[in-house]
Write a structure and sequence with these properties.
GO terms for molecular function: DNA-binding transcription factor activity; peroxidase activity; transcription cis-regulatory region binding. The chain is of the alpha/beta class. About 45% of the residues lie in helices and about 15% in strands.
Length: about 350
């Protein structure tokens, strides 16, 4: 028969205090004199007492757990975000559960049910699937949800996004400033907020410079390396190559680098490439990728803080927070003015 471990009553007896006082001290819901606290700490250590975390959470009326839902975890952007969320949650005494949706509608709806089932107290939510009317209607029922990276139109949750327009404009401004005039744009699904905003920035930079911006130079599909590979074949079939390509994600840009190299097109000598995100991969590929940095870690930290603050003060909405986007110059852009 398995021997039972020490109980909170055992700790109270050894410390010479009431069970209630010990319980409240361990739950950090009471301030005791330093000497009294020391007696409890010594009793806990001597007895090897471990608190029943499940019972403690139930007694406090919550799971002390938050969830993070992302489309995938192999993308370094989402893994960096997850690490920052976990650290922020841990500092506030919360655990983290990760949900990977693979952009499947039923899985996304299922993760929302974690709140109903008290598996989590709230969710940080990322979707890369545009036009999800069902998700829009469902997510509006929950106040304890914070949207990250992409918007779900018609929702009123707290949201943390990047300065997409400004970042894209700066990327194309840099290409124009370094002598590029025929610039293509390779980007994600038409309906995504980030896609629309980065396209706005692309067009704005052309307008500022007095350059034409043809729809024939804009390519939509998804944020994937495979699309980056596939779109190269389309670009190379055109009568004239672009001077440069602004890719709306590093994943797309890296796929393009691979396929351009396979086809004997030199980057940046024959074609310059700029990405967006500044994931860890951007500094590891050859050539190292010039890109727009949006900090996945900062987005995760701010989002987790917003969610935990909302759980502490229900009903307080802070609206949309935008994190900065900044140009990181590496080796994938040729200065054509020389």
């Amino acid at each position: 028969m398995k021997k039972k471990g020490p109980t909170i009553q055992d700790v109270a007896n050894r410390a010479g205090l009431s069970k209630a006082a010990v319980s409240r001290y361990l739950n950090k819901s009471i301030n005791l004199p330093e000497e009294t606290g020391r007696k409890i700490d010594e009793a806990v250590k001597a007895l090897g007492y471990r608190r029943n975390s499940i019972a403690r959470r139930l007694s406090k009326g919550g799971s002390e757990t938050i969830g993070l839902v992302v489309p995938e975890i192999s993308n370094p952007f989402f893994s960096e975000m997850a690490e920052a969320v976990e650290q922020t949650a841990s500092e506030r005494g919360y655990n983290l559960i990760l949900g990977i949706s693979r952009n499947h509608p039923d899985k996304e709806i299922g993760f929302l049910r974690w709140i109903d089932d008290s598996i989590v107290d709230g969710l940080l939510f990322v979707t890369n699937r545009p036009g999800n009317r069902r998700l829009q209607l469902d997510i509006r029922r929950y106040r304890s949800v914070v949207l990250l990276d992409e918007d779900i139109p018609g929702t009123v949750q707290d949201k943390v996004f990047c300065q997409n327009v400004e970042g894209a404009r700066d990327a194309v401004r840099y290409l124009i400033r370094t002598g590029h005039r025929r610039i293509f744009h390779v980007t994600g699904p038409v309906s995504l907020m980030s896609v629309k905003e980065r396209l706005d920035g692309f067009r704005l930079a052309h307008e500022e410079a007095g350059l034409p911006c043809s729809d024939n130079h804009i390519f939509h599909h998804d944020y994937s390396q495979q699309f980056g590979r596939d779109v190269v074949r389309d670009i190379l079939s055109r009568p004239a190559l672009p001077d440069a390509v602004f890719a709306a994600s590093d994943y797309i840009a890296i796929g393009m680098l691979e396929e351009l190299k396979r086809n004997g097109v030199r980057v940046p000598d024959d074609m310059s490439i700029v990405g967006f995100d500044d994931t860890t991969l951007a500094g590891l590929v050859t050539p190292k990728l010039t890109t727009i940095r949006q900090s996945a870690a900062e987005m995760g930290r701010i989002g987790a803080t917003r969610l935990l603050d909302a759980l502490a003060q229900p009903g307080v909405l802070r609206g949309v927070t935008r994190i900065a986007a900044s140009l990181v110059v590496r080796d994938s852009v040729l200065d054509r003015r020389e």
